[in-house]
Amino acid sequence: MNAMHVALPPVREDLRDFAGYRSARSERVSGTIWLDANESAWCSAADEDGSLRRYPEPQPEALTQALSDLYGCEPRQLLVGRGSDEPIDLLVRAFCAASRDAVLVTPPVFGMYAVCARLQGARLVEVPLVDGTGDFRADLDAIAEAALSSGAKLVFLCSPGNPAGGTLAAAGVLALARKLAGLALVVVDEAYVEFADTPSLVPSVTDQPNLAVLRTLSKAHALAAARIGCVIADPGVIAVLRRCQAPYPVPVPSAQRALHALAAASLRQTRERVVRTREERERMREAIADLPGVLRVYPSQTNFLLVRVDDPAVAFGRLLDAGVVVRDMRAMPQLGDALRISLGTPTQNDRLLSALTGSAVTVPALEISS
Ligand SMILES: *Cc1c(COP(=O)(O)O)cnc(C)c1O
């Protein structure tokens, strides 16, 4: 065992010698006539550029390289998945034995961690966020204690948080990872980090092998339907997850679109839109806070706002009547009076404001000459 890997949390014991599925394309052979994978000899009428007839690369090399360049890591530290939802599932499967191992989460938080734990039969340990005077905060000492006492194999932290909106201090996360070295993997979900003031933790993965970071093209990069996300972690962890993953997880059309989105011109546009979204976020935060019936708007490092209102049913209904759909958070712990509002275009945001005010939508006045 490599010295650096001593700090890695143990993979499920029953998976130690699990090789996963060996697809035709994972055999290292070469040739000019490929008759090894039972693919069709002809292209489909739906296949305009002939890119769909053959099974895709399991981990498209160009995309892995482009994502690694974007996030600042080595290709061997990165696994491309179907959104970042898939890496969440793979992590739970690879590290948690059913009915024995635990996953730690910090509600109110993104629901997929608990869903994947449930599916795998892993125990769920909850350390709720603390609703302070400013915003929701994770209690990192309580998290460390609960992880140690429950023997959790995975600690999911969401930073910036969905739906809480705030970020965790990097120093605190790294201290937690050091405390849990060799015992648990600390997974930081950075689905919204492009919208935040604080930098990503990706560069820290190299020195802290029990730290993993989730990134996605679904939010700032506007490719939710392409289903491209990734996990960045120690190469040993990446290799284990790859063995647990489906044989051909990345469809060619999705990989092509993702590469397009990672070209310099697209990235420039993405950055401009992030700037506009952040401006809208601050404008909307002040405007919503001033509305009657609004109790609190949380500070946000994301592309949405978490809002507490005195009568959520009325607010939700008013918005629906105006054709504006927001996320009703009332079923979430600590959020019985809350709505989560994604930031739209300035025009859409204005529509939301007038709907919440209860006033009619402003129609530009006609010029009447008298
Ligand atoms: C949206 C979101 C994801 C991203 O999911 P994808 O599968 O990449 O589309 C991951 N984590 C959080 C917290 C999210 O809000």
Number of strands: 13
**Overall body shape:** globular
Range of helix content: 25-40%
H-E string: HEHEHEEEHEHEEEHHHEEHEEH
Low-confidence runs: 360-365
List of distinct ligands in this structure:
pyridoxal-5'-phosphate
Short note summarizing the structure:
The protein has helices at residues 61-71, 85-95, 112-120, 140-150, 170-179, 235-244, 252-261, 264-289, 312-321, 346-357; strands spanning 78-82, 102-105, 123-126, 130-131, 136-137, 152-158, 185-189, 211-216, 228-232, 294-297, 304-309, 327-328, 338-342. By secondary structure, the chain is α/β, with parallel strands linked by helices.
Key terms for this structure?
seven-stranded mixed beta sheet, Aspartate Aminotransferase, domain 2, single chain, 2 domains, globular, 10 helices, binds pyridoxal-5'-phosphate, four-stranded antiparallel beta sheet, Aspartate Aminotransferase, domain 1, 370 residues, alpha/beta
